[in-house]
Amino acid sequence: MELGLNETQQMLKNSAHEFLQAECPDTYVRAMENDGSGHATEIWDKVAAQGWIGLMFPEKYGGFGLSFLDLTILLEEMGRVMFPGPFFSTVIGGGLTLLIAGNEEQKQNYLPKLCEGQLIISLAVNEPDSYWDQQSIKTVAKKSGNKYIINGTKAFVDNAHISDYIIIAAKTNNKISLFIAPSKSEGINQNLHKTIGSDKKSELLINNLELSNDAIIGELNEGWNYIKKIQEYGAVGKCAEMSGGSQEVLDMTVEYAKQRIQFGRPIGSFQAIQHHCANMAIDVEGIKYLTHQASWNLSEGNDAKKEISIAKAWSSDAYQRVCALGQVVHGAIGYTKEHNMQMYTRRAKSAELAYGDSKYHLENIENIIGF
Amino acid sequence: MDFEFSKDDELFRQEVANFVDKELPWNWREDKIDSEDPKDRPKVTEFKKKLAKKGWLTMAWPKEYGGQAAPHIRQLIFNEEMSYRGIPAVDAGITQVGPIIMLFGTDEQKKYFLPKISNAEIDWTQGYSEPDAGSDLAGLQTRAIEDGDDFLVTGSKIWNGAHSGANWMFMLVRTDPDAPKHRGISFLVAEMKSEGITVEPIPMMWDHSRALITLENVRVPKKNLIGELNRGWYVGAALLDFERSGIGYASNASKLIKELVQYTKETTRNGKLLSEDPIIRNELATMAVEIETAKMMAYSVAWMQSKSDIPNKEASISKAFGSEMVVRLVNIGMKILGSHGELEPNSKDAPLRGIIEQLYMSSPASATAAGSSEIQRNIIATRGLGLPRG
């Protein structure tokens, strides 16, 4: 048993921390909230130059060949600073989907460019009334000669508005297949959702989108098996962001409690405040170890369904509790737009919803514990 | 990172499990055993002697004192397997008095006590809390006055376990009332048969008693002082290399949840299996998450100890969360049992041998014992997070 970081991970953590402190100050995060694209290409290029987009992809596809566990460490640091932009959606939703599902030609086609930062790829699975459930997907791909015609509506598609390609889950016969389409295709119309996290998610209105056979990623009708696997990585990746974010909220709150004077002394000397902070520390500790456990199991290729659902169920709720207590300790100032506290609170909801919320994962756990 | 136990450790876990299956003098799945109940006590002692023969009772002790200097992870596994089966395997002699004597005792004390402790021949009761000194333990008032070769001890100790059969008490007493409160305390051991000691049971709201021990001019020989005079606070706080992860909460709970899930699959209420109730399923799934969380918190403490790091915030996190998690699980369990939840263990039709009902009343007390949740949170906030003391 070894629960600590190895040397590579410690170095990665340190350099990510340093880089993000310099390149991603809160002013940048705010600017991206208000920016229509939510994405700055100079920073994206720098991230690509660090090798982070390709961190966990094999070297033969232009990546660095590190593990998902290593990526987890990087995502923790990104979560700490609320790193804006399409990193997560492109690496997990785009790149990892291609790595898991794609045939050799597709991997060669997309992954090297993606690793270099030249491609932004989004994943479109859920729909207005479908949430990680293959049965309720209504988007249909109908075969017509050597083409497919796709119709349907997708919802909450991360960063579709700046993407080059979108991977779309659609019904083929009664199964699901994945199709990759250029985002600017005729037949795809987008509307940005307005979300509390000010992150950029879109509705896709797909109307007679025509795609050739070779737009199918991997095998026909195998799409949902791919999605299940990608969802595992996505869920743990989100836990990693929440792990970093919750640690930052705790640190910021403790710092504030030491500085803020009321009744002639720092509020952090009052037990009411101390116990709020202690409860935050308890939740943060849980998020960290459950996330690392799930990520380690995934990286080792173990069946990690239990660990993943436990980590995501816990983190989704615990992160929101941490933010809620952070708000309480900060008092009125924490609710103002100019304060960083509320930026974390607004993102916690989005992190819960991504790749299965706690309700979804608790249902998985019901089966695992013998119901 | 590596979240798995080594092969050797897993083999050890299997060995412990097999040994318990063969050698335990009671059926752990069915019999409710209380190590402080005079009728159960001989069985517990019998099993401890078997553990002693295996070398497991004192596995954490250094080799020079007959232990195995077992790594923390081994201790963790042993404790996890014992808690899962509800076996009171280790006692205060093994985890506290023995190690304290090793660190601070005279040669004579070591020669006299250590073999007896490692052979499960002494039953200890802990004389720490007093009626007016609970969370503020250093405010204790039991007075020990030097009188020739003895101390004369007067005062009272409370919440003692093992009152039924304890033959020795280890205690903190005030030897210098004028010194600052932490610096006037000494660590003594006394025979319970000493003149002037009376033991009065305090029946608790569950099927169990604690004790109030009154000491009136009890003569305790000076050779029973462990460590230096007036340094008792620091002697009592010294912990040898003992696993203190708090794995017991998660381990015990993981057994309970299995039994509860099974119960819902076998129990019909209003014509429907309880296991088909979405609220029950959801609540037990939530508890499965909490149990795993408590387990990881405990593992992290043992892992830190295995690297010679000192977990203070982490141990408090594990204790506070673990003990409160059990309370939540038991509350949910009681709701699941419905009307039958109020049946006492010896009642006809008491489900799950009345375990849930007993824990419903006793588990909140375990969030109070050994440093209450509030004290743990104070520690997390001040020592762990660096917040200023109030």
Task: Please summarize what this structure is.
The complex is a heterodimer of chains A (371) and B (390). Chain A is of the alpha+beta class and 371 residues long. Chain A has helices at residues 7-23, 26-34, 41-49, 68-80, 87-101, 104-115, 223-259, 271-299, 305-330, 341-353, 358-368; strands spanning 121-124, 140-144, 147-158, 165-172, 175-182, 188-192, 201-212, 261-262, 265-266.
**Unreliable stretches of chain B:** none
* Termini separation of chain A: 31 Å
Largest interface: A-B, 47 and 51 residues
What is the CATH architecture descriptor of the largest domain in chain A?
Up-down Bundle
SSE succession of chain A: HHHHHHEEEEEEEHEEHHHH
Silhouette of chain B: globular
How does this structure look, described?
The complex is a heterodimer of chains A (371) and B (390). Chain A is built from eleven helices and nine strands. Chain A is of the alpha+beta class and 371 residues long. In chain A, the strands form three sheets. In chain A, strands 2-3-7-6 form a four-stranded antiparallel β-sheet, with no helix packed on it. In chain A, strands 1-4-5 form a three-stranded mixed β-sheet, with helices on one face. Chain A is globular and about 80 Å long. The relative contact order of chain A is 0.11. Chain B has three domains: 7-90, Butyryl-Coa Dehydrogenase, subunit A, domain 1, CATH 1.10.540; 124-236, Butyryl-CoA Dehydrogenase, subunit A, domain 2; 247-384, Butyryl-CoA Dehydrogenase, subunit A, domain 3, CATH 1.20.140.10. Chain B is of the alpha+beta class. The model of chain B has no long low-confidence stretch (mean pLDDT 93). Chain B is globular, with a radius of gyration of 22 Å. At the A-B interface, helix 7, strand 9, helix 8, helix 9 and helix 11 of A face helix 7, helix 8, helix 9 and helix 11 of B.
